[in-house]
Amino acid sequence: MFGVKLVLLLLMNSSNLQPRFKDSPHFKDFWTKGNGSQLIRFSGAEVSFKDFEKFSPYFYHVDEVGDQVVKDIYLTKKFHEASREIESYIRNGVSESDEVPESVKKLFLQTQKIPDWLDYDLLKNGAELCMRVNLDSLISLRDYCLMGGYDFAYLNKPLIITEALKKGAAKRLSETLDFWVNTTRYNALELHQKGYEFAIKTRLIHSYARLSIRKHYKNWDTENWGEPINSWDMMATYIGFSLVFLHSLHKLGNTFSKQEEDGLFHLWKYVGYLLGIPENLLPENKKQATEFFYLWTSIQPPADKDSVLLAHSLLNESLENPILKYRFQRRNLRYLHICCTWFLLDDEVCKRLQIPEVNNRKAFPIVKRTINKIYDKLVSRKRRIKKGNKDQMKVLTDYLNITANSNFH
């Protein structure tokens, strides 16, 4: 009976949802002369609103299985006991005959079932692309994917409500980097391995946050903002890790093969599957991803004051982070990130996020792009993968070391 009511509620909400910002300047500018128009050329997408009603119900759809696991495990025990129990399921697996809550059985039987479409060679190709592009991957994640995401005001609401600003940008970067690195290594997504573990834990963190928002934040505007951390927003987030990430690498002068490109989308499709995102929301390629993304952006207003706070917290992280010893080094790093942000994002987005104007802002990205093109020709793919993995692991270790200190924000 509850399931029927839920379906009716979703249909009722989604029937009211329209591509409400499709005639707004920020939407039209993005898709006619900004990064959106570049994505269309880059992917060969054919964008329209004909499938809007097919996707819009997911604005009010969430991972009910993950939510129930949190209710059954985390909300009935002390946090460390619940975490230990979940880790034992991740490491040892769950079978039909195990005496565990039905929600736990449902979640783990789903994630332990290898989908028919999974191709391990494509996963390997995707992981190799992520490693091969070295620190450009981290520039892309930070200055395009994360910063660009702040321009979508409704997407940011759970971050603001769960007080992400108080936690600090370095901690958020550390967590994102930890997740990204550990899901993009060789064999990381095999059952019970590190990437699989990160996917399951991230899925439950999302559920825990969603339940907390529902319980403690009575002013959540479901009609306009959708459900907290809803499936459609999750789709957009993971398009950030695939399509937007790939576009950023392209803008920075990196080249990639068709196998690597297909592998990257396949990798994030599988991560999305483990996270409980409905499979029909997980794009197979850049054309499909752009067409999906177009529909989603039509329900998102542009940056608001919260977006600006998040953007400046991320920019100023370079000044506050003690990884670099001297103040002038930190100022210089902040300057380079500002240059990359202006280069990778639309000018209008940067203005809305109040990204500071700096001198010679195109110089570093253009030099970087030139060096990348030369480096691609001179250094073997195998060496680039090995070096990229080493350098990315070094950055992750540095971040984990500084954020392990609870006094650092």
UniProtKB/TrEMBL annotation:
**Single GO term (MF):** oxidoreductase activity
Q: Which domain of life is it from?
A: Bacteria
* Domain ER-bound oxygenase mpaB/mpaB'/Rubber oxygenase catalytic residue range list: 168-363
Q: Which Pfam families match?
A: MPAB_Lcp_cat
Annotated protein name in UniProt = ER-bound oxygenase mpaB/mpaB'/Rubber oxygenase catalytic domain-containing protein
Taxonomic source organism? Chryseobacterium taeanense
Q: Which InterPro entries match?
A: Lcp-like (IPR037473), MPAB/Lcp_cat_dom (IPR018713)
